[in-house]
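Hi all, long-time lurker, first post. I run a small reading group and we've been trying to get comfortable going from sequence to structure in the token notation. Rather than ask abstract questions, I figured I'd post a concrete chain and ask someone more experienced to write out its structure so we can walk through it together at our next meeting. Sequence below, copied exactly:
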Amino acid sequence: MTSSARIVRVAVVAALAACLSQIADAQQRKRHRASPPPSLDVVPSPEIEARVASEVAKARQILADLNTANLLDSPYLVSAVYYHDGFLTGFPVNKPSADPERRIIGQISNLMTPDEKALFVRLLHDLWAETVPPGPPHFLSPVSYSSMSGGRRTHRYAVDLFTPEGSPVHSVCRGLVVLADNEWTAADPFSAASRKGGNAVIVFDPDHDRFYRYCHMSTVSVRSGEPVAAGQTIGTVGHTGFNAARAGHGRHLHFESNEYVDGKVRAIDNRRLRAMLLTWPRATEEQTTMKPAVTTIPVPIITPPPQL
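-- Answer (accepted) --
Happy to help. Here is the structure in token form:
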């Protein structure tokens, strides 16, 4: 090969490499533009301030006379009990533009005493005692998943279980449904107790004083106050919530667990949660389709207020 031919060949390879590099850089920039999660901040308004104040006042009124009849009337109060101690420390609960649902939960958390939280858990046990236990105390996987997220780079206190949307979601244990959000919409900051989690279910496990939370669901087929059996279908996998609604971020169930220990709610970290999941068997078809006959506690149906 002549020297001039070599020069031409080198020039062509260099040009091709530069072109490929520019394409890669463009794709990388595009990914970076799409990666930040959407802001949960809102445009301040008197309507939002009034709703925040109303929900906090409602929780305060419930706490003043906490009993099994009103225990689950406020999803924000339930969330304030569920979130691990210190979760919203430092969150600007009085900032008008901050995420409204977290402002509500944060303000309720600030006014709750340890004794009130302990009473809440005791009343959950009382409510459970009034039901016929739906099945034995054992564990089953929440979904049939192809893979599981891992490490603190994804979630420190949760895992994402990847599975097709529309797949059934099962309660991992027998317990009491304490929260069931089924009307999430991105346009309404009050449509769910968690704008990030979207349609979600929280089940209290009275056998171990744990809470299990299932997020981003498409549909929810249980309601607050309902006892469920291990393996019972509680909804389907979806992509609701600000995080999962982003392009390419669905197709999984966000699963987490907190436990009440020594008077405090502590989060179960990613490593322990993964280890727990790996020991739980997959539910059989019979276990996941059979809904046992149970005695439910009457829980008033609360009509949600008009959207803002």
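A couple of things your group might point at:
Helices lie at 3-34, 46-64, 75-82, 100-111, 114-129, 270-279, 285-289.
The chain has two domains: 46-129, 147-289.
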